[in-house]
Amino acid sequence: MKLSIDLGGTHVRIAQVENGRCLNKISVACPSQQDASTILNLLSQLIERMMNEHVEGIGIGVPSIVDSEKGVVYNVANISSWKEIHLKEALESEFRVPVAINNDSNCFTLGVKMFGEGQPYANMVGVTIGTGIGAGVIIDHRLYGGEFMGAGEIGTLPYLDSDFEQYCSSFFFKRYNTTGAEAAEKANSGDRAALEIWKEFGIHLGNLMKAVLLVYAPQAVILGGGIAPAFPLFRGAMENEMRIFPYKVILDRVEVKVSHQKDASLLGASVLIK
């Protein structure tokens, strides 16, 4: 048995994982505006609740770049107090089991590749769309992280007056004083203004998809995260924008789909423990 943790700017999730299944799960709000020790103490408390003699190790996904060997996380997105946290050292000394840490989008992508829709593809990109946006990259069936596991930090690519994260994640909806959930509810009820918001979102995401295709040329892009279930609301605009692409043979072959693999990020974090 392994413990898996998905640390996000909004929630912290933890699960016991065995044989590719999440057994017991806990989700709590992340005190992202608190000091570093408060968040670390919360992680310790959650692990203590789930720990037992069968736990072989702890896998953790964090929204940041990571020194995966030393287990140091840097500049965690939406958790301003976590500039440089020696997380592996802290948790291994407390719980006396191996701890492995990686980027949260990498964990999602590993989960989809090992247990979900990514299984058929040798080369794929998993994109998480939620509080922020990030990606994990699979090349020849293996995760490619690059230095500090930063190969999928696509949200920070410059775009318009800012970067893609401001236009392809929850930040986009703040421009209209709404949230993704509220905009989806209204759009599904036929609200024209909400439908236009999703159309614009799809155009921005289409531009990001083109950047992903140019950099990685994958067989598939698999979407996850809290905003991904709204795919029917932005798919048309996204695909229409993607048609303006220089290499038709790549565009014609790639599949863009939404993952329905429940708990992909937690399952992927469990794979970190060998």
Number of strands: 15
CATH homologous superfamily of the largest domain?
ATPase, nucleotide binding domain
Q: End-to-end span in angstroms?
A: 12 Å
Helix and strand sequence? EEEHEEEEHEHEEEEEHHHEHHEH
CATH topology of the largest domain: Nucleotidyltransferase, domain 5
Shape: globular
Look at the helices and sheets and give the structural class: alpha/beta
Radius of gyration: 18 Å
Largest sheet: 5 strands, mixed
Description:
37% of the residues lie in helices and 26% in strands. By secondary structure, it is α/β, with parallel strands linked by helices. The chain has 2 domains: 2-104 and 264-271, ATPase, nucleotide binding domain (Nucleotidyltransferase, domain 5); 117-258, 2-Layer Sandwich (Nucleotidyltransferase, domain 5). The strands form 4 sheets. The protein has a 5-stranded mixed beta sheet, sandwiched between helices. A 5-stranded mixed beta sheet has the order 11-10-9-14-15, sandwiched between helices. Helix 3 (104-115) packs across helix 9 (264-271), helix 5 (180-188) packs across helix 6 (192-216) and helix 6 packs across helix 7. The model has no long low-confidence stretch (mean pLDDT 95).
What topology emerges from the helices and strands here?
Layout: E1 2-7, E2 11-18, E3 21-29, H1 36-50, E4 57-62, E5 65-67, E6 72-74, E7 84-86, H2 87-95, E8 99-103, H3 104-115, E9 124-129, E10 133-139, E11 142-144, E12 158-159, E13 162-163, H4 170-174, H5 180-188, H6 192-216, E14 220-224, H7 231-242, H8 248-253, E15 255-258, H9 264-271
Parallel strand pairs: 1-4, 4-8, 9-14, 14-15
Antiparallel strand pairs: 1-2, 2-3, 5-6, 6-7, 9-10, 10-11, 12-13
Helix pairs in contact: 3-9, 5-6, 6-7
